[in-house]
Design a protein that fits this description.
Layout lengths: L2 H7 L2 H4 L25 E2 L11 H8 L13 H11 L6 E4 L2 H12 L5 E4 L6 H8 L3 E4 L10 H7 L4 E7 L11 H8 L5 E4 L3 H4 L13 E6 L12 E4 L2 H10 L7 H12 L1 H24 L3 E3 L6 E6 L4 H10 L2 E2 L1 E5 L2 E8 L3 H17 L4
Parallel strand pairs: 1-11, 3-4, 3-5, 5-6, 6-7
Antiparallel strand pairs: 2-8, 7-8, 9-10, 10-13, 12-13
Helix pairs in contact: 3-11, 4-11, 5-6
Bound molecules: pyridoxal-5'-phosphate.
Pyridoxal-5'-phosphate (PLP) binds next to helix 5.
Length: about 375
């Protein structure tokens, strides 16, 4: 069969599907940056530049059961997360990254023709998975200061609406939504997914309310605060009935054995990891102050491990390229609702220093320094 012939058999919506613009792996940048690949400073995917707990590396080096499938009901893992979150294990279900749980939740609620409400600018994976599941994304833009338009969301609810997504704090803006607003959405009776991927940096959560509502779901991840992005491990807090359905529809061994070991060791080293979170939060405030001094960028206050900036002079895409050449990776946005912005992950103090120096040089080149 010719490729064209095969393509005719692929779902038409997938043929037209744009995919996700994922962060670049440094290995793919050989020849495109002016520094050795090992010196690249990766501030483009909100990873934890302090790495994971050293206990995780040690335990994985000594782990002898990689030949055995992990427990499909995640019994030990859910108990560990119960201990960490203070939420009973029957409410918990884990995924290969919290991203996989977004897909499983959509798989549970959304079929072709159903609608999903989202508030851009926000995490692009809501759109990605909604489209792949055949749903329609109904976008209710945030206000200029990135607050959710609660009345707008309520007005957008129709007969086909199946779920409302709220990232809190939000990516890429770093801003939070007051819990009263979230409750107003929950009180519509529709399933509401509150994505708390950055909870450890913000300290704000609606998880304790999960036991009071049949329609409130909360997502969390070990990617950011625990530095385990590469192992793909996240979890959700769901009404037990929904958790049971999710356990039924998930791929049987969706969380790998190494990730389970990593969670166990991370939780044994919780003080170490939360100290790193504190260091990142302190560094975020220093970075914010430094960015504010550059008059051609407008940083927004953040409750996460990254800072969103509007680029006031020049194009965000060009700024991203200039930083990349110097070996500093950031994310740029040029889509409706998030035009001409960059998002910078917070690293260690030396990463802030290198970034600010590069931005000052670039500012000098474009005569705005
Ligand atoms: C708001 C939000 N939710 C979920 C995720 C996904 O995290 P993971 O799949 O690594 O758990 C991210 C990652 O950047 C995010 O920003």
């Amino acid at each position: 069969m010719t490729p064209e012939g095969i393509e005719r058999l692929i779902r038409p919506d997938v043929v037209n599907f744009g995919g996700y613009r994922a962060a670049k792996s440094p290995d793919t940048l050989v020849g495109k940056v002016e520094v050795p690949i090992e010196s690249i400073i990766k501030l483009d995917a909100n990873e934890n530049l302090y790495g994971c707990s050293p206990r995780v590396n040690q335990a994985l080096a000594n782990y002898l059961s990689l030949n055995i499938y992990p427990d499909s009901r995640q019994t030990q893992l859910r108990e560990l997360i119960q201990e960490y979150s203070g939420i009973s294990a029957e409410y918990i279900m884990a995924g290969s990254g919290s991203s996989q749980l977004i897909d499983l939740i959509l798989c549970l609620f959304v079929g072709p023709g159903d609608e999903v409400i989202s508030c851009p600018p926000t995490f692009a994976m809501y759109q990605f998975y909604t489209q792949l599941r055949g749903g329609t994304l109904v976008e209710v833009p945030r206000s200029e200061d990135f607050a959710i338009n609660v009345n707008g969301v309520k007005a957008a609810i129709g007969k086909k609406t199946k779920i409302i997504f709220v990232a809190n704090p939000n990516n890429p803006t770093g801003t939070t939504t007051p819990w009263q607003d979230i409750l107003e959405l929950v009180n519509t009776g529709l399933p509401v997914l509150v994505d708390e991927a950055y909870y450890e940096f913000s300290g704000e959560t609606v998880a304790p309310l999960a036991s009071q509502y049949q329609n409130l779901m909360v997502l969390r991840t070990f990617s950011k605060w625990a530095g385990l992005a590469g192992l793909r491990i996240g979890y959700g807090i769901f009404p037990p009935q929904i958790a049971e359905y999710l356990l039924r529809i998930k791929p049987p061994y969706n969380v790998n054995a190494a990730a389970v070991v990593a969670v166990k060791e991370s939780l044994k080293d919780i003080d170490y990891l939360l100290d790193r979170v504190k260091a990142i939060v302190a560094e975020r405030e220093r970075l914010f102050g430094e960015l504010q001094k550059l008059k051609w960028l407008k940083p927004f206050p953040s409750q996460t491990n990254f800072i969103f900036c509007s680029v006031l002079v020049g194009k965000a895409s060009e700024l991203q390229q200039k930083l990349q050449k110097r070996g500093i990776l950031v994310r740029y946005f040029d889509l409706p609702f998030w035009e001409n912005g960059i998002r910078i992950s917070v690293g260690k103090p030396e990463h802030t220093d290198a970034l600010i120096k590069a931005l000052q040089e670039i500012g000098g080149e474009i005569n705005v320094g």
